[in-house]
Each structure stands twice: as structure tokens, then as C-alpha cells.
UniProtKB/TrEMBL annotation, chain A:
Ranges that cross the membrane: 74-96, 108-128, 157-181, 210-229, 261-281
Main location: membrane
Family per similarity comment: Belongs to the binding-protein-dependent transport system permease family.
GO CC terms of this entry: plasma membrane
Alphabetical UniProt keywords: Cell membrane, Membrane, Transmembrane, Transmembrane helix, Transport
Name used for this protein in its record: Sugar ABC transporter permease
Start and end residues of each ABC transmembrane type-1 domain: 70-282
Gene for this chain: lacF
Pfam families documented for this protein: BPD_transp_1
Membrane disposition: Multi-pass membrane protein
InterPro entries with a match to the protein in the record: ABC_transporter_permease (IPR051393), MetI-like (IPR000515), MetI-like_sf (IPR035906)
Subcellular location: Cell membrane
Family annotation (SUPFAM superfamilies): MetI-like
UniProtKB/TrEMBL annotation, chain B:
Keywords: Cell membrane, Membrane, Transmembrane, Transmembrane helix, Transport
TM regions (residue ranges): 20-41, 77-101, 113-134, 146-167, 188-211, 247-268
Recorded GO CC terms: plasma membrane
Keyword Transport attached: yes
Family: Belongs to the binding-protein-dependent transport system permease family.
Protein name as it appears in the record: Sugar ABC transporter permease
InterPro entries reported in the protein's UniProt record: MetI-like (IPR000515), MetI-like_sf (IPR035906)
Limits of the ABC transmembrane type-1 domain: 78-268
Main location, first listed in the record: membrane
């Protein structure tokens, strides 16, 4: 082998070794496991493991909790992505309007929850949403409304988690969108102004079309994240009440906890397929950028 | 970045627009930062006051913070979090820059295959690798060790992507010139490539540190005794513990988890946010 090739491999080796053992191997192992009836008790006795083909996947289709978790995850994505995108776009657009001072302050403030531990966020929001003494229901009480038990009721727990996720993540999209807005040439706005377009018309006919690729990118990245939503229900609702906030990832985690490793791996691969589908969609719509 | 509006809308309408924008942004800021402010203020209230939905403490006390030391072992959790986050960050900076450089600037067989393989794993949901990783770490006898907490995160695909993209934008001339002068490949990497990569390394370092500091699920299942708990694990387990929950203690704990991440972010936010924007768009 040439000297050049050796150098390349020497530079790649440390990463690739760790990558092969701790990432590539588990991805493959998960696929193999999904086709077996592996349970935690079989780990010491691998011969007891049977190849079961697609049985796990067939079982998933009639697993009511799994179907429930699919619906919850879908709701989370379908409601959460537009909500987060709209907040992010509104913040970016307001800060980019040229009318606002202290832009740095707003930018940092809105980004704050993105860098905060979900566990700390859960501690605070559970107290803020407390049905009796929480800030939210106290505020509602001032205007004469009796607020619900947000995280404790089957009708409000999932919507509350969606809103908290949007609250937590829109700062990230704001930063992405701000960068996108700054690439729109000022001449486009000048031309629109000469044509008599107001602010709203400019937003609709200049900003939105020019920002389309960035918006799409942001929405897909957020969608991929929300498809895997897990930590929010884990630390705030434990998937309840009555599985109303159980997500696919949470279902995988529970099955792992019960020791059903093969079944858990199968459920995780369903999620994998969904993420790949969304990523392919993005590449199709944006064209490959290498 | 001037605050002068290039558009020439009538002045009166600008004023209205400005007032509306400030109203929206300030409300937004209150909603986003408010819970953090309330957390900070409530962490210095006595227990009885916390459940009263007030902002300012009537009695100021540091008792909740003292309890973190006396009743829980927060210094240990803090040190564990710091050790894990620093090791993971150092590993990613080293391994990702090495591979990123090889992929961007060194021609070797298998280069494209490696790039596609690493890029492909960016799409893999955490839950897919979670179970096999746990089985692997258990079989290696690494549960409840620092190695078990750190190893699966030492080489992240995102870092490779980031470093490769950054290095692609750097011209080859400097590297070629050094090669002509007879400098060895390691010397070129350490003396020329790494200093050139400083902005990308800063972005990767901050992102990795924050992700590791806030990482929750993995240490939750791998750390099984208190001496290996990280801060988020300790906080989560305490908040759902069997004992009567002491909210003051919980809020003080949350402050201790948030503040280091916040300081890192605030000190480095300028280059950090710029890095996010450029990597996000690449």
C-alpha cells in the first residue's frame, strides 16, 4: 500500500475503531436482534435465542400500546413542527426587521432553553403547571378561569408537552432562519417597496419564497427530532396519564426495561424507517448538497 | 447588521410596527426566560413559600443549596458530569478532526465509503443503538464505570461531518507548501491544520460539551450507584424518588445543572450561534 494511503488510514483509524464497535456494530446488532426473540435473560445463554423472522414486526401491528404510541408521536410531529417553525420564523423575522434594538439580548434569551437540561426544564415546568399553586393556573385564576391539571389529564398532557417542546426548540430554528434571512438581497425588498408592497405583502411574496429551502431544512430537522421524542414524557409524565403521552421511543424503552430486547429492537427499526423516509424527502426536495 | 431600515415605508407606520414588534418580542422573552427566573428566585425561598405562585421571596435563604451538600452528594455528581463531559469533548475534538482532515485533504482508498457510512449513521435514531450498546457495555463489564459512560460518545458522526465541511473550504496551498518543505503528516496536522480549524473546533467543542452535560438517558441506565451519577440523573431520580419531595432542594439542584451550561453558552455565544447557523445551512 502506498505511503499516502497508509497516512489516510492512520488518521481515520482511531475514529473508525470506536465508530465500528460502538455505533456501526450496534446498528447491525439491532437489525439482527429485531428478527429474534432475544430477551435479557438469554444474554448468558445465546443458544436459547430463536430466529423468528418478521414475527416481532407482525406483533407490533396488533400491539395496542405500540399503535397508541405511533398516534401520539404523529400528533407530536404534525402539531409540534408547524408550531415550532412559526415561533422560530416570527422571532427571526422580528429581529431581522431592522426596527429592533437589543437584538443580541433577544437572541440569547430565546436560545436559552435549547442549551438547558431537559431534567431541569421538567422540574420547573411541573411546578409552573401545578394545578393548584402553579404560575399558569394562578394567572388563569386572575381572569376567572379554572385551569386544568395540565400534565395529569389525558386531554391536556400531550398538548402541554407539544407546547413545551416548541417553547424549548424554537430558538434553534430562529438562529437558522436568521442566517437564511440575511442572505436575501436588500434589492428584492427595495423593488417590492417601489411596487407599493406593504410589510405583510413583502413577507409573503419576498421573504417566504426566498426562505423556502431554509424553512424546509429547519422543519425536517425538527421533524426528525420530534419523531424520536422521549425525554419530555419520561421526565414529566412517565408516558401517562393512561399512555396519553407514550411515544414510540418511550415504548422501545419500556420494552427494553421489560427485557424484551428483540421486540424493542423491532420497534426501534420502525422509527428508523420513518426518520430515513423524512430525510429522503428532504434530499429530494432540496437536492443533494455535498 | 445596522439598525437602519433600508426599506422606505412611511415613518408613522414604522412606529406602529416597531411598537407591535417590541410587544411581541418582550412577551416572548418573558414566556421563555420567565420560568428560569422563577426557578432561580424560588431556589432561595423556604419550602413553604415555593408552592404559593409568587415571584420574589419574602424570606431569602440558602438552605436549599446547603441541603444539596448535606442531604445529597451533589459535589460528586457535579464532578462526574464534568469528567464525562470533558472526556467526551476531548475525544470528539481529537478523533473527528483527524478523520475530518483525512476525508477532506488526504486521498486514500475507501475514503468515499467511510464518508457515506459515517454520514448515514447521522440518521440513526438513538433508540436503535440504545439496546445493543447497553448489551455491549454490560458484556464488556463496563456498567457503572466512567469508561461505560464515555466510550459510546467518544466518536460522533456529526463532528466528522462538521470538520470535513470546514476543512473543504480551506485551500490546499498551505498544506502542500509544508509538504514540499518536507514536514511529516503528523507535524502538518498539528502545526498547520489544527490552528486553521479553530472556529470549527470551538463550535464542535461547545456543542459536544453541552450535549454531554445534558445527556440523560445513557447515564440513567449505565450509572447504577450514587458515586457514578451525573447531575441530570441525580436530579431526575430525586424528583421521582419514594421520599417526600422537597421542592426547594429540587429547584436548587436544577439551578446547579443549568448554570454551568449557561455560563459556557453566554461566554461563547457569539461564535457559537454563528457556528450553529453555518453548520445548519451547510
Amino acid at each position: 500500500m502506498s505511503r499516502r494511503a497508509l497516512t489516510g488510514w492512520a488518521f481515520a483509524a482511531p475514529f473508525m475503531t470506536l465508530f465500528a464497535v460502538f455505533l456501526a456494530l450496534p446498528v447491525l446488532a439491532s437489525l439482527v436482534m429485531s428478527l429474534t426473540d432475544l430477551r435479557s435473560t438469554d444474554l448468558r445463554n445465546p443458544l436459547a435465542v430463536n430466529f423468528v423472522g418478521v414475527d416481532n414486526f407482525v406483533r407490533l401491528l396488533s400491539d395496542e400500546l405500540f399503535l397508541r404510541s405511533m398516534v401520539n408521536t404523529l400528533v407530536f410531529v404534525v402539531v409540534g413542527v408547524p408550531l415550532t417553525t412559526v415561533f422560530g420564523l416570527a422571532a427571526a423575522n422580528a429581529l431581522n426587521s431592522g426596527l429592533i434594538r437589543l437584538r443580541g439580548l433577544f437572541r440569547v434569551g430565546f436560545y436559552l432553553p435549547v442549551v438547558t437540561s431537559i431534567v431541569a426544564i421538567a422540574v420547573v415546568w411541573r411546578l409552573v403547571l401545578d394545578p393548584q399553586s402553579g404560575l399558569v393556573n394562578s394567572l388563569l385564576g386572575v381572569v376567572g378561569v379554572t385551569g386544568p391539571d395540565w400534565l395529569g389529564s389525558t386531554s391536556t398532557a400531550l398538548p402541554a408537552l407539544v407546547v413545551i417542546a416548541a417553547w424549548r426548540n424554537f430558538g434553534f430554528l430562529m438562529v437558522i432562519f436568521l442566517a437564511g434571512l440575511q442572505t436575501i438581497p436588500a434589492e428584492l425588498y427595495e423593488a417590492a417597496t417601489i411596487d407599493g408592497a406593504g410589510r405583510w405583502a413583502q413577507f409573503r411574496h419576498v421573504t417566504l419564497p426566498a426562505l423556502r429551502p431554509t424553512l424546509l431544512f429547519g422543519a425536517v430537522v425538527t421533524g426528525i427530532g420530534y419523531l424520536q421524542f422521549f425525554e419530555e414524557p419520561l421526565v414529566m409524565t412517565r408516558g401517562g396519564p393512561l399512555s396519553s403521552t407514550l411515544s414510540v421511543s418511550y415504548h422501545v424503552y419500556n420494552q427494553f426495561g421489560f427485557g424484551n430486547y428483540g421486540y424493542a429492537a423491532a420497534a426501534s427499526y420502525v422509527l428508523f424507517v420513518a426518520v430515513v423516509a423524512l430525510s429522503v424527502l428532504q434530499f429530494r426536495l432540496l437536492g443533494e448538497r455535498d | 447588521m445596522s439598525t437602519v431600515d433600508t426599506r422606505t415605508a412611511p415613518r408613522g407606520r414604522d412606529r406602529v410596527a416597531r411598537v407591535v414588534l417590541y410587544a411581541i418580542l418582550l412577551t416572548g422573552l418573558l414566556v421563555v426566560v420567565g420560568p428560569f427566573l422563577w426557578m432561580l428566585l424560588s431556589s432561595v425561598k423556604p419550602e413553604a413559600e415555593i408552592r404559593q405562585a409568587t415571584w420574589l421571596p419574602r424570606t431569602w435563604t440558602l438552605e436549599n443549596y446547603r441541603d444539596l451538600f448535606d442531604r445529597l452528594d451533589f459535589p460528586t455528581f457535579f464532578v462526574n458530569s464534568a469528567i464525562v463531559a470533558l472526556l467526551v469533548t476531548a475525544g470528539n475534538l481529537a478523533f473527528c478532526s483527524l478523520l475530518g482532515y483525512a476525508l477532506a485533504k488526504l486521498a486514500f482508498p475507501g475514503r468515499r465509503a467511510i464518508f457515506l457510512l459515517v454520514l448515514g449513521t447521522l440518521m440513526v435514531p438513538g433508540m436503535v443503538t440504545f439496546v445493543p450498546q447497553f448489551v455491549l457495555v454490560s458484556n464488556l463489564g463496563l456498567t457503572n464505570t466512567y469508561a461505560g459512560l464515555v466510550l459510546p460518545f467518544l466518536a460522533g458522526p456529526f463532528g466528522v461531518f462538521l470538520m470535513r465541511q470546514y476543512l473543504m473550504s480551506i485551500p490546499d496551498d498551505l498544506i502542500e507548501a509544508a509538504r514540499v518543505d518536507g514536514a511529516g503528516e503528523w507535524r502538518i496536522f498539528l502545526r498547520i491544520v489544527l490552528p486553521l480549524c479553530r472556529p470549527a473546533l470551538a463550535t464542535l467543542g461547545i456543542l459536544t460539551f453541552l450535549a454531554s452535560w445534558n445527556n440523560f438517558l445513557w447515564p440513567l441506565v449505565v450509572a447504577t450507584t450514587e458515586d457514578k451519577y451525573t447531575l441530570p440523573v441525580a436530579l431526575a431520580l430525586y424528583s421521582v424518588g419514594q421520599n417526600r419531595i422537597d421542592f426547594g432542594l429540587l429547584l436548587a439542584g436544577a439551578v446547579v445543572v443549568v448554570v454551568p451550561a449557561l455560563v459556557v453558552f453566554l461566554v461563547l455565544q457569539r461564535s457559537f450561534l454563528r457556528g450553529i447557523a453555518t453548520t445548519g445551512l451547510k
